[in-house]
Amino acid sequence: MENTNTLTHSRTFTKNQKWVIASTSSGFALENMDVLFLSFAMSSMIGQLHLSGGAAGLIGSITNLGMLFGGIMFGLIGDRFGRVKTFTYTIFIFAFATAMMAFANNITLIYILRFLAGIGAGGEYGVGISMIAESFHKNQIGKMTSVAAIGGQIGAILAAVTAAIVIPHLGWHALFLVGIVPVVLTYFVRRHLSETQEFVEAKKVEAEKKESTTSAVFKYMFSSPKLAYQSFALMIMTTVQIAGYFGLMNWLPIIVQKQLGLNVSGSSLWMISTIIGMSLGMITFGSILDYFGPRRAFGIFLIASAAMVFTITLAHNTISLLIIGAIVGFFSNGMFGGYGAVISRLYPTEIRSTANNVIVNIGRAVGGFSSVIIGILMDNYSLTVVMGFLSILYVISFITMITLPGLKKLSLKQA
């Protein structure tokens, strides 16, 4: 039975609900700021350290492998010991590892620090999404996870603005030193948040069954061919989502600089336009998901993404680039908040944090290799070929999505 205090379907949010959405949005914002510092520092790092396209792309991929490791580890910790403390631990880890990049002068140390940053960032996602799912009505989850995801885009804007100010004057090392800022958030999270009643009750039931969180997670996610297919299919969809996002966000600043001869400040303006489009897309997607169900929401955005990525090749001046960036961002990343909402409704409370982290961070680990692939494609082929690669991925995700019976059931319940 849903707790009436935490899951009230109302226009007025409780104090706890406000703190949950504020904390998760802020956490995702600061995490994304730290992660995307790499995008704006990449061209400087390539020049100073004499990196090839493949070696540079591998930095992002190693970050995503760290996210997978951290996602599984902290997902289990969050499901077993509680969301709030675990959330603060993940913030501290990615903030510390990012700040240490200020002292990195060789590619090996950079790989190590980005792996550690990934551990913290990957652990934060599922724990934060679970806090939202357990604090809001099921018909609000899509919009609330999208609001939290918009926090991530605010972090991207912060990264763009900070990079434009810091890199030209102090260099890329100083940019990463700013990454220590998220540690401040841990104080407010610990002071104002407590575990939800839904989580407390689920732990009581688990204790009575005497079943460990670890065994419960994998027993449920792969207990039948139907559930195993559901889990793997969601991993494919999140892989495509992350491949598109990191492929675009890690490399497009460099593409923009080459295509229009923009400097770091100019490409930051383009990034801000794209991020605004992403944020509007998230709000729109969350509303469609809550009112019409996930199949219609994902269907519209996946097909549109497959078509719209090609419009980047049509940009020949700054104004057209800003408009196209916003449109591509609207569709390509508007879906991001929806995955947490869907996973949280398809998997039970006692494994929710781990299920979110396992599915999304496997997507990050595999999809993150798009940075390497796009780096290689950029070295050898045209921009049209790069966009064609991303378009095919979105079509694959669409075909996978329409085969998922779990999404069909959620859509029927929504109708």
TrEMBL record:
TM stretches of this protein: 20-42, 54-74, 86-104, 110-133, 145-166, 172-189, 227-248, 268-289, 296-315, 321-346, 358-378, 384-407
Domain Major facilitator superfamily (MFS) profile, first and last residues per copy: 20-409
Membrane topology note: Multi-pass membrane protein
Location(s), subcellular: Cell membrane
Classification via Pfam families: MFS_1
GO cellular component: plasma membrane
SUPFAM superfamilies reported in the protein's UniProt record: MFS general substrate transporter
Any one GO molecular-function label of the UniProt entry: carboxylic acid transmembrane transporter activity
Keywords on record: Membrane, Transmembrane, Transmembrane helix, Transport
Main localization of the protein described in the UniProt heading: membrane
Keyword Transmembrane listed: yes
Official protein name in the record: Transporter, major facilitator family protein
Source organism (scientific name): Lentilactobacillus sunkii DSM 19904
Phylogenetic lineage: Bacteria, Bacillati, Bacillota, Bacilli, Lactobacillales
